[in-house]
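thought: fold this chain, then report.
action: predict
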Amino acid sequence: MTIEPNSPNLPTPEPLPEQEPDDFDSGTSDNHLSPEALTTQQNLAAISSLQSPQHTTAMQRAISSMQQRPTYQFTVKPRALALTLAAIAITLLGVILNNWIVGIVGTLVTLVLSLAMLLPWLQYVLKEWFTPEDRTLFVGFLGLIAAIVGFIKFSGIGDRLLTWGRGINWEAFGTLAEWFGALGQILIAIIAVYVAWRQYVISKDLTIQQNLLTVQQNIITQQQTIDSYFQGISDLVLDEEGLLEDWPQERAIAEGRTAAIFSSVDGSGKAKILRFLSRSKLLTPLKRDRRLGRAILNGMGGYAEDRLEGVRVIDLGVMLAAADLSGTDLRWTDLSEANLVRANLSSCDLVKANLSRTILYDANLNGADLNGVKLLYGSWETASPRSRKEPPNYETGEHTGAVIENANFTNAQRMSEANRYYCCAWGGEKTRATIPGGCEGVPNKLIAQ
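observation:
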């Protein structure tokens, strides 16, 4: 029969019988709860007695979950404290009266009572601070030490060691001690040298890491500078409709920006800028409206080129003279008519690059990939290097070739036969000696002029 929750006749829970605690009531028992936990448990027990049997299990789980963690409290009855204080007083009295009977009795009673008071705390400390594995290892080491001492004692080894020690002339060991002292000083010096060496190695590693971080920071800063340059050039040369502007002052500012940024970036940065300018047709001579100066469309979605009379948005001129572009990617770049005197193009990827009328005097192209590179227009039989006086003829190739005198083509990769013949004919003796495949049978036209 279930009792309604609103019934006025609610059963009163029977009070728990009180038990007289001992003088030394330890809080380490698992059944000991704090007063707040005991009150919570009694209230939950009263509520659970009003519920139906099917909720008993759930209420028991709630009771167990609300129980607080047992606290390791140690309470001492006042009479135990009084006994302890009395024992301490007896001990002090024995010390004052110099009576060993009174002193030993007080000391023993004080020791027993103090140990009884501290024992629960010591048990708690041992349980909380030391795991079972730690206690096992500690006992094991104690056993090992006891076993070694017992073995030395009862096996006769200890007596033999004492006999051997008495027979040693310890005075003779004075000089040996001095030797050991000197050896110790030497070892200290060696250790000091080792520590100094380790400090040097650590400092060197830190310096290398700092240099790497600096290099990475410089790369990030350079890329940000290049991105800002790209955006600035785009805003400068394009109008609101996205067409190329053609005011002389805008071209002059664009060339000035390009010359300035070339002096502040490395070879990889220069190559990125050249690829951007080339693919944007800013290095290509474009056909212009002679009255308005605007670039003319070719009817196929691009701008018409005019190699003979066209105007470039940015004229590289001597910006790349003696530049270090080794190992960079210059594929499909238009470097025609640029001044690359003494430029380092070793190991460059120059596939499909336009180097017509480019000044490559004393340039280094060691190991460069020259597949599809354009060094001239027209036929290689009639082509010749650029001239200061004569205009180029892009049909026959006269004065459209690159100036390659004293250039180094050692180990150049994938050079075409036309380019090989042109380099042998117009490169001079120094250049001819570096042409892959040799120049046998090709006349030196540079001497004939």
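thought: worth noting. The radius of gyration is 50 Å.
final: tokens above.
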